[in-house]
């Protein structure tokens, strides 16, 4: 386990923190605790009422389902029993057969049965020779009689149609009819059974509808066999199930012990095609997940009532055998639990909503009490903070006033004391003073103090042609305050510089002298500027006298830079020797080679979308064109190292210590690729989304990886060149002081300012403008 030390804020008094917590408990805890207790009580009552009402509703629903199952059982028994009685009556009455001279009696008897018992679809009469008579209901209360005369003589199938009076209205023969009663299930079942036989559900040959048949046999004293069958369609049972109201969306079906559907609210939808023939569906073939789940539970646990879950809903399932039907049939009912207990949840929600009125009133009163208490504590805290700010500002004014020469134009400007005071009073991460030079086109940093490092830098220059938007607002005397420099149009260009230091927020206070802006005071990442704005404005007025003269005087420039000859810059302690490696590095202990005089250029792209834009007339994008140009430049100038990594390209020369022209070829390459990039971006109507950095110092390189091994370069030169590229203005080449010292005789530079470089310290940077 990794242990970590607790971070303690030593600026906070523990006793004050405890007192603040006690006040918060009194101001907030007690009122909110009372409201929470009230809410908890209401929720407990609502939960208890919901459970009690739900249990009561489920008990009533169980009684309802039992009654419904009994009703379905009675309905099924009443639907099937007449067919059984008719089959017995036919056997006992027409035991000598139904053909020949007895056909008129059969027709009369059948017409009466079909009219009195509507669920009977067909009456069937057959003998052991395959002779068959079928009587069914016809048009206008008539009957249709089908005669199959199998023996003696050739097979003949005849349809006879009679009206309600018994008169024959039509007769035709059907030579295509192949019906043989001896192959039907009702015949075979009755033949093998001495009692009444019930078939399973099947599709009737003539009507093509699902149904069942009750059949019985009779053998006369001569041994001749006669069979009688009564067909019943199941559509009426399906219509009956469809008429039942079981909750809002519940449904009931009748199944047998094999899962085959006997009746369903969907009626004829129970049929399916199997090899061109209609057949009844099984329950798991309906595509109803709830019925399938209920049937699976029934097969495992048997009949009974239970609650099942399908998806995220709960259903009540009830499976009960139907007694008295003569079959292994069962009623299956499924209904969403919400259909029975949903009203309980709705009523509870309504009661809860009404209870919310009480809670809202109590919360309003508690919030008023809390608000009043917090306002009193906040006002007291603001008063203490304001008093602390005033005390610090008073001390700062006294400290500044104690040094009368600080703002004397005749004396050198001691700005370091001033920026330190600004940063400490305002808690800003960085405070700086900027002076306008040469009448306004240049903004030069007189001094910048970083509170985190305690270091001072100066000399950084910002040019109006590089930051036109920022200069237009500064020269207009506008106070600029932004929380995110990258999102404000006034500081979007400046964000490229600030981002190198990790700065996000900025307050820029103009320095005026005689209604003329002569400079600016900047605070970077200040936590709050509302209480310190007047102090910053006062400091800006103090430094106005000194900056007024500085804005008119010419700017001192480096020897060899663009512009007028100038005085030499102040001496900065830095090692400009080629060998910058630390003394503790032992080259013999390394598996790589140290190159002390390496010249490195880093080209950095800042807009991924701009790099992918296809150029007109050229089948390549900008990034491809730039890569090709770099390869050609490296080949022409003998640059041995060129690598592309993500959005950066690194070029290096100087692997041979005797090579004194490494810095020159790298600088030439930087200028050439800068001009090429500017042309490509202008051609694509895009902004200059690239930055270039140059450094001349130590680097380490060696082959890495398995075969084929790859040469890699790293160290100070690569790191610092990357930092120069990251902080350069878009479309420019920024060089370190080490690179400037090597190139100033042959190239034009202008000073950019001071930066802090790791293991080097304060260092000046320069913008490479061109060749002499």
What does this structure look like?
The chain has 15 helices and 31 strands. It is an alpha+beta fold. It has 3 domains: 26-128 and 136-145 and 160-167 and 177-381, PAS domain (Beta-Lactamase, 2-Layer Sandwich), CATH 3.30.450; 404-552, Beta-Lactamase; 587-771, Nucleotide cyclase, GGDEF domain (Alpha-Beta Plaits, 2-Layer Sandwich). The strands form 5 sheets. Strands 1, 2, 3, 4, 5, 6, 7, 8 and 9 form a 9-stranded antiparallel β-sheet that branches. Helix 1 runs antiparallel to helix 6, helix 6 packs antiparallel against helix 7 and helix 12 runs antiparallel to helix 13 (662-683).
Give the gist of this structure.
The protein has 772 residues and is of the alpha+beta class.
Rg result: 51 Å
Shape: elongated
Count of helical regions: 15
Strand content is: 25-35%
Percent range of helical residues: 25-40%
The overall average pLDDT, rounded, is: 77
Structural domain tally: 3
Largest sheet: 9 strands, antiparallel
List the helices and strands and how they pair.
Layout: H1 14-93, H2 103-116, E1 120-127, E2 132-137, E3 143-149, E4 156-162, E5 168-173, H3 185-191, E6 197-198, E7 202-203, E8 210-219, E9 225-233, H4 235-243, E10 251-256, E11 261-263, E12 271-274, E13 277-280, H5 289-301, E14 304-310, E15 313-321, E16 329-336, H6 337-401, H7 415-426, E17 430-437, E18 442-450, E19 455-457, E20 461-463, H8 468-475, E21 480-482, H9 495-498, E22 506-513, E23 516-524, H10 533-552, E24 593-605, H11 608-611, H12 622-637, E25 641-645, E26 648-653, H13 662-683, E27 690-704, E28 710-714, H14 716-727, E29 733-736, H15 737-743, E30 747-757, E31 761-771
Parallel strand pairs: 27-29
Antiparallel strand pairs: 1-2, 1-9, 2-3, 3-4, 4-5, 6-8, 7-8, 8-9, 10-11, 10-16, 12-13, 14-15, 15-16, 17-18, 17-23, 18-19, 18-20, 21-22, 22-23, 24-26, 24-27, 25-26, 27-28, 29-31, 30-31
Helix pairs in contact: 1-6, 6-7, 12-13
């Amino acid at each position: 386990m990794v242990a970590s030390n607790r971070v303690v804020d030593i600026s906070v008094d523990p006793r004050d923190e405890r007192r603040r917590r006690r006040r918060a408990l009194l101001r907030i805890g007690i009122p909110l605790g009372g409201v929470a207790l009230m809410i908890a009580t209401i929720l407990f009552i609502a939960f208890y009422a919901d459970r009690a009402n739900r249990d009561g509703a489920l008990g009533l629903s169980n009684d309802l389902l039992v009654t419904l199952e009994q009703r379905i059982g009675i309905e099924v028994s009443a639907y099937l029993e007449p067919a059984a009685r008719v089959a017995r009556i036919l056997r006992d009455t027409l035991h000598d057969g139904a053909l020949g001279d007895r056909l008129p009696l059969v027709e009369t008897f059948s017409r009466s049965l079909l009219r009195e018992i509507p669920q009977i679809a067909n009456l069937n009469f057959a003998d052991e020779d395959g002779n068959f008579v079928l009587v069914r209901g016809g048009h206008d209360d008539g009957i249709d009689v089908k005669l199959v005369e199998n023996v003696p003589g050739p097979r003949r199938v005849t349809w006879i149609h009679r009206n309600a009076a018994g008169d024959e209205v039509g007769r035709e023969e059907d030579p295509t009819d192949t019906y043989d009663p001896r192959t039907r299930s009702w015949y075979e079942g009755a033949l093998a059974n001495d009692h009444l036989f019930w078939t399973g559900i099947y599709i009737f040959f003539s009507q093509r509808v699902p149904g069942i048949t009750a059949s019985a046999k009779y053998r006369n004293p001569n041994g001749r066999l006669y069979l009688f069958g009564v067909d019943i369609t199941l559509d009426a049972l399906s219509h009956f199930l469809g008429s039942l109201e079981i909750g809002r969306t519940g449904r009931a079906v009748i199944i047998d012990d094999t899962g085959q559907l006997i009746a369903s609210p969907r009626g004829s939808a129970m049929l399916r095609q199997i090899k061109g023939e209609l057949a009844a569906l099984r329950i798991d073939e309906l595509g109803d997940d709830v019925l399938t789940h209920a049937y699976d539970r029934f097969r495992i646990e048997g009949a009974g009532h239970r609650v099942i879950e399908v998806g995220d809903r709960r259903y009540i399932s009830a499976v009960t055998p139907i007694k008295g039907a003569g079959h292994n049939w069962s009623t299956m009912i499924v209904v969403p639990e919400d259909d029975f207990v949903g009203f309980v949840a709705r009523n509870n929600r309504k009661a809860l909503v009404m209870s919310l009125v009480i809670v809202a009133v109590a919360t309003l009163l508690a919030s008023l009490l809390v608000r009043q208490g917090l306002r009193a504590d906040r006002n007291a805290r603001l008063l203490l903070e304001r008093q602390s700010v005033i005390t610090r500002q008073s001390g700062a004014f006294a400290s500044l006033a104690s040094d009368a020469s600080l703002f004397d134009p005749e004396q050198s400007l001691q700005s370091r004391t001033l920026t330190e005071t600004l940063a400490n009073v305002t808690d800003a991460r960085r405070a700086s003073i900027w002076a306008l030079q040469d009448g306004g086109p240049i903004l030069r940093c007189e001094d910048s103090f970083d509170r985190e490092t305690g270091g001072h830098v100066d000399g950084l220059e910002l040019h109006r042609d590089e930051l036109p938007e920022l200069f237009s607002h500064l020269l207009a005397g506008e106070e600029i305050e932004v929380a995110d420099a990258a999102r404000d149009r006034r500081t979007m260009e400046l964000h490229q510089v600030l981002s190198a230091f990790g700065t996000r927020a900025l307050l820029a206070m103009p320095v005026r002298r005689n209604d003329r802006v002569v400079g600016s005071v900047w605070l970077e990442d200040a936590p709050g500027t509302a209480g310190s704005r007047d102090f910053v404005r006062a400091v800006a007025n103090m430094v106005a006298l000194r900056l007024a003269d500085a804005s008119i005087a010419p700017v001192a420039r480096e020897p060899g830079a663009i512009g007028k000859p100038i005085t030499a810059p102040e001496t900065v302690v830095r090692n400009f020797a080629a060998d910058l490696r630390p003394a503790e590095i032992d080259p013999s202990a390394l598996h790589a080679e140290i190159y002390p005089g390496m010249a490195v250029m880093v080209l950095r792209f800042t807009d991924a979308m701009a790099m992918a834009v296809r150029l007109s007339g050229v089948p390549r994008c900008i990034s491809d064109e730039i890569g090709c140009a770099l390869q050609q430049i490296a080949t022409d100038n003998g640059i041995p190292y060129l690598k592309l990594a993500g959005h950066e390209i690194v070029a290096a020369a100087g692997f041979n210590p005797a090579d004194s022209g490494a810095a020159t070829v790298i600088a030439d390459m930087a200028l050439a690729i800068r001009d090429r990039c500017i042309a490509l971006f202008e051609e694509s109507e895009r902004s200059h989304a690239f930055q270039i950095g140059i450094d001349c110092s130590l680097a380490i390189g060696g082959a890495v990886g398995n075969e084929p091994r790859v040469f890699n370069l790293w160290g100070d030169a690569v790191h610092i060149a990357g930092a120069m590229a990251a902080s350069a203005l878009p479309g420019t080449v920024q060089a370190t002081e080490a690179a400037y010292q090597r190139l100033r005789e042959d190239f034009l530079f202008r000073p950019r300012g001071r930066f802090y470089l790791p293991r080097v310290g304060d260092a000046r940077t320069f913008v490479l403008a061109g060749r002499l």
